[in-house]
Design a protein that fits this description.
Blueprint (H helix, E strand, L loop, with lengths): L2 E7 L4 E7 L4 H11 L10 E5 L21 E6 L12 H11 L6 H25 L13 H21 L3 H23 L3 H22 L4 H22 L4 H16 L2 H9 L1 H9 L6 H36 L2 H17 L6 H21 L4 H20 L4 H29 L2 H9 L1
Parallel strand pairs: 1-4
Antiparallel strand pairs: 1-2, 3-4
Helix pairs in contact: 3-4, 3-5, 4-5, 4-6, 5-6, 6-7, 6-11, 7-11, 8-11, 8-12, 8-15, 9-11, 11-12, 11-13, 12-13, 12-15, 13-14
Keywords: Membrane, Transmembrane, Transmembrane helix
Organism: Serinibacter salmoneus
InterPro entries: EccD_transm, YukD-like
């Protein structure tokens, strides 16, 4: 048996003792307390610690805890023991926390900044060319400014898609951004200066860029579906405008179809991703690879996000047009559509989808406050009420029971608002007034 000579200091006495190195500290504790004549302190637990504050484990031996000959120890109560040392590697902690922060700069932000800069420069180049056509007038046989802008926009998107297909997302994304930026002035030309037409053309070009650049360029089925849906809806709106249909009438029909489509989007996304087919195969006893299911789930979420953004954009445009008409039935329909859109956002779990629907809900409010023909006082009161509502929402911390009641109340409000859209739409389309004239 080996021994270790240590110095132990109590509250009254200090002793140099030789302890068996292979005995546990707790076994020798009573003898050491008697040796030091340590007074009883009402049953408080006693510990032996070194001068740095590290308490010895009573279940381990002196040797296992690395107690060397000549060590200076002290006996205290647990409450009076000095604080154990904490060694913190500040550099390591800083690096670890930085790596886990979502707002840490990464190559994705760099790529996004480059694409934004290229898009802005593309827009400025196209804007300068279209606003100063005389710049090309001096050259014989020179194409028109609009031709050059069209080639710049279309060529950038197509070339970017080809580069993306070659596995170069950096320059491919930059070229697509160039094409998108250059296409925006085209919306002003094609829309003829009408605000509604310009906005629809801008949306159509944006969705077309998404479908070609990301859908075909990167092989993203979800982007292709979302871009195709947005382009198709925008094309229908443009056809209606070209046929002379009033924007208010298009807004009524488009708003009703948009909120109706919101209930169908989750099922459509699941069907297009192939998840329903996997479920049927699993029920039939077939083995479904887990990797395929995970990939299909990701595709379903992405498809739902893109299609929701497309539908939300249509709903926002419809509600903005309705509130800016200043007519009672149209504004009532816009309010009902906004209520349905806001409450329907609760069922979308992904941030992008819910944010798109909430932004669509806020669009008519912002448009009415900013550009309505109503008086300044009324608009200021509406803006103040909106601010008050948002402040209450940010401060509210309801319990689980209250949240359940609010959800049920929201379901009822959504149902009532959905039912109200039908008579409001008929009234906005003039059906009721026509019936009154017939039976008058």
């Amino acid at each position: 048996m080996t021994y270790t000579r240590v110095t132990i200091r109590g509250s009254r006495r200090k002793a140099d003792v030789t302890v068996p190195s292979e005995e546990s500290v707790g076994t020798l504790m009573p003898a050491l307390l008697d040796l030091l004549q340590e007074p009883s302190r009402g049953g408080e637990a006693m510990v032996i610690s070194d001068l740095a504050g590290s308490a010895l484990d009573p279940d381990l031996t002196w040797q296992e805890q690395g107690i060397r000959p000549g060590a200076l120890l002290q006996v205290t109560t647990v409450d009076d023991a000095p604080q154990a040392p904490e060694v913190i590697a500040v550099t390591d902690v800083l690096a670890d926390r930085l790596a886990h922060r979502r707002d840490a700069w990464n190559p994705g932000y760099t790529a996004a900044g480059i694409r934004l800069g290229v898009a802005v420069m593309g827009f400025l180049i196209a804007r300068l060319l279209t606003s100063r056509p005389e710049l090309l007038a001096g050259a014989s046989g020179a194409p028109s400014a609009w031709t050059i802008v069209s080639l710049l926009a279309g060529g950038g998107v197509v070339l970017g898609a080809v580069v993306n297909r070659r596995g170069l997302p950096g320059p491919g994304g930059a070229l697509i951004a160039l094409g998108f930026g250059a296409s925006l002035p085209l919306a002003g030309l094609l829309g003829g200066g009408d605000l509604v037409s310009v906005s629809v053309w801008a949306a159509a070009l944006g969705w077309l860029v998404l479908a070609v650049g990301l859908g075909l360029g990167r092989g993203s089925t979800s982007a292709l579906i979302g871009g195709g849906l947005g382009t198709a809806v925008s094309a229908l709106l443009l056809v209606a405008l070209a046929c002379g249909v009033q924007p208010a009438t298009i807004a009524v029909i488009g708003g009703i179809l948009a909120i109706g489509a919101l209930g169908l989007l989750p099922g459509i996304a699941l069907a297009l991703s192939g998840l329903t087919g996997y479920d049927e195969r699993a029920m039939g006893g077939a083995v479904v690879p887990g990797a395929d299911v995970v990939r299909s789930v990701g595709s379903a979420f992405a498809t739902l996000t893109w299609t929701t953004v497309a539908v939300a954009l249509v709903a926002a445009e419809a509600m903005v047009v309705l509130v800016l008409t200043g007519r009672g039935w149209h504004m009532g329909l816009a309010v009902a559509l906004a209520v349905v859109t806001a409450l329907r956002a609760r069922t979308f779990a992904l941030a992008a989808s819910r944010a798109a629907l909430l932004a669509a809900t806020a669009a008519p409010v912002i448009a009415w406050v900013a550009a309505s023909s109503a008086g300044v006082t009324e608009r200021m009161i509406a803006a103040g009420l909106a601010v008050l509502l948002l402040l209450v929402w940010s401060a509210a911390r309801p319990s689980d029971v209250v949240q359940a009641r609010l959800r049920r109340l929201g379901d009822v409000a959504e149902l009532l608002a959905m039912l109200a859209t039908v008579p409001l739409a008929l009234a906005a389309l003039g059906v009721f007034s026509d019936l009154l004239q017939v039976f008058a």
